[in-house]
Amino acid sequence: MTQPALTSAQELPEGLRGAVADWSSDQRAFKKVPWYKAMMWIFLLSDTFIFSCFLISYMTVRASTTEPWPNPSEVFALTLWGHNIPLILIAIMTFVLISSSGTMVLAVNYGYRKDRVKTFVFLLLTAVLGATFVGMQAFEWTKLIIEGVRPWSNPMGAAQFGSSFFMITGFHGTHVSIGVIFLLIVAAKVLRGDLDHERPGFLTGRKGNYEIVETMGLYWHFVDLVWVFIFALFYLW
Amino acid sequence: MAHAEGQHVAHAAAQQKAHVEGQQHPIGIYLKIWGWLFVLSTASYLVDYFHVQGYLRWFLILTFMLLKAGLIVAVFMHMLWERLALVYAILVPPLLLLVLLAIGAFEADYTFLTRGTFFGATSEVSPKH
């Protein structure tokens, strides 16, 4: 059997006609992307549904409770330099995560330029910012637990506040933590030159190349993307 | 048939190109988007800081949220430059969530009403026993 031919980039039609042609081409539907990048997108799609289920359940319990919902602006306030600043911890966490997304795109960009050292530095910086975020989240959890917030009750109001909070931020924090671990793995591969020399990966045995940095980046940006929704719908609403 | 031959030649070319088909763009656009994300995050924080309330608050929060999400997906995740076959495969299915959202909203509304009737009005309804 011959391999199914891949149509060259010049022949591929663009726009809506291109989408129809790609899907009906009797070849791989996702052209011009490495297969694992397409698969990462499909994984992220499934993850979108998971987080959406959490956020929609949160909406449902918050809208159906007859008790007052605790005011996140006050719950997450911190006293800094003698001033009580509302929601400041969450604001800092947001900026940390956005910065880490910024360093991640730079890592991807330098990766495609085959700049080994800069890619490594930016990946490491992304991991450090991610770890900072998780650290601040641990601080936030500790603070709330000390104040008596539990998944089944809390002193500020509706009991559903605690269950939504721990479920949503816990799942997000887990994603960030896993991301940090994989960032460190990819950073180590970059530094060793595995990607430059196309050494096979220890798990998949596929040849190393700089496209895996972009796939890693997709996951990381998704984590930031989820935070955008959590920040708006849970903390600001 | 000439078409098929052309495909074979193109096949070799595609394999050659396979190594350079990654998303490469000038750094400037990333820095610009990074800046915008900071501005939008600050703006949504200020909504809370200045205690904007009511419909204006919800409108601003949702607008900033959608703008940030759009910028991240379009530029940082490169959706702007992907082929439509992939873009549609990823971005269309989440629209189904609107159905779940609507079901959740109806359900919550009904639960709230029932809770109000059963728990809220105890003083008005005299116990039967």
Chain-wise SSE layout:
The complex is a heterodimer of chains A (237) and B (129).
Chain A: H1 15-23, H2 35-64, H3 72-75, E1 78-80, E2 83-85, H4 88-112, H5 116-146, H6 160-192, H7 211-236
Antiparallel strand pairs in A: 1-2
Chain B: H1 2-17, H2 27-49, H3 54-76, H4 84-91, H5 97-120
Helix pairs in contact in B: 2-3
Overview of this structure, please?
The complex is a heterodimer of chains A (237) and B (129). Chain A has 237 residues and is mostly helical. Chain A has 2 domains: 1-32, no CATH class; 34-236, Four Helix Bundle (Hemerythrin (Met), subunit A). Helix content of chain A is 67%, strand content 3%. Chain A contains 7 helices and 2 strands. A two-stranded antiparallel sheet of chain A has the order 1-2. Chain B is an all-alpha fold. Chain B has one domain (2-120). In chain B, 73% of the residues lie in helices and 0% in strands. Chain B contains 5 helices and no strands. Chain B has helices at 2-17, 27-49, 54-76, 84-91, 97-120. Residues 4-20 of chain B have low confidence and may be disordered.
Core attributes:
heterodimer, A: 237 residues, mainly alpha, Four Helix Bundle (Hemerythrin (Met), subunit A), 2 domains, two-stranded antiparallel sheet, 7 helices, globular, B: 129 residues, 5 helices
